[in-house]
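Subject: for your reference before the review

Hello V.,

The reviewers asked for a structural picture of the protein, and I figured it would be easier to keep everything in one thread rather than splitting it across files. Below is the amino acid sequence we used in the manuscript, unchanged from the supplementary table.
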Amino acid sequence: MYTIVSKIPEGLCFFWALFTRDPIFLVFLNRLKYPPGGPEPRVRLAFDRRRSFLYAGSMNANLHLHSRFSDGTDWPVDIVRRALGHGLHSLALTDHDTLGGQGEFLAACQRFGVGATEGVEIDCVCPDLGYRSELLAYFPQHWYDGTAKLLSDVRDKRLAYLRMAIGGAKRQFPQADLSFEGLLKRKTSGRPEVSVEQLSFNKVDLFSYLLDLHLIPSDTSYRAFKKAYLDSKLLVESTYGKPSCEEVLRVVHADGGLVVLPHGGHEFNDDAKQLVKEAKRLKTLLDYFQNLGLDGLELYWYRNSQTKGINKIFRSEAKARGLFITYGSDCHGPGSGKETLGLFSGNFKGWPEGLSVPGAAVPKGPS
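And here is what came back from the structure prediction:
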């Protein structure tokens, strides 16, 4: 079979895959035309490159996904495997404040013939606007050294906060055997090789840990837990600082990356009518980010019935402002309450061409 498939002209294979948009065909081609241990497959890399950010209107994409490296429930390879079943052609892993899962993610996408873009969702603030949310950063050029340094500092603060919160939980539940090591074991379930430095810890980790130990009622929602134990400062007095939106845009752009405003409807209670009513506030918000160099807006899956109306507004804003659009469902995996992998995606037109790679002689990932 290898011999037969290897004689198929590469050009014919490429145009067939481009015409069918069939990810299963890509897996078939990659496995048979280029068996393990053989030469590096030129066609597979061409598929990845073209499906990732060159061909306009060629990809069914979901570019907002979370794994166990932050607050998701799946490891990156499991996300990619499940994405094939949903007919997705291009993905981006955007864990909170960590790029630690990108190696596994890129390898899985290459293995299954799915287009891949490295990304991260960075928690940030703009006090003047009352904005306390995130920005999505994408690195199609495979270079993010400066961003990685910024995120390392953020993760250190997250980790220190979590350790203090566990200390508070031990005082609140003295009968329980609570420890950071116990939480870490739960978070890295089945993957002891994953290091603390690769992970981004968060309040959801603590919530899930206490829930698993039956220290809080099983029907407690995360929001209720956060309000009762964290916002009230019952477990820990201090919080951790987040970078400013301005700093995030500056650092990501210095790496040659792109910055996208995610789930903009959240700032307006996921309500299209409120967006229209508060058009002046929306303009102020978008003007602020665009003046900082914002590159794109995300079309998003909202949990209520407002998805179509909200996305129509942001699509119109993107066109008027000359910003590109991305598509993301913010999937956190099975059992997370946000298992949205197959619920929302879009015909992604691709990243802007000609992205720079500052000071990089060799790209970090497949090119």
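For the response letter, the relevant points are probably these. The two ends are 28 Å apart (CA to CA). The domain at 53-145+247-348 is CATH 3.20.20.140 (TIM Barrel).

Happy to draft the paragraph if you're swamped.

O.
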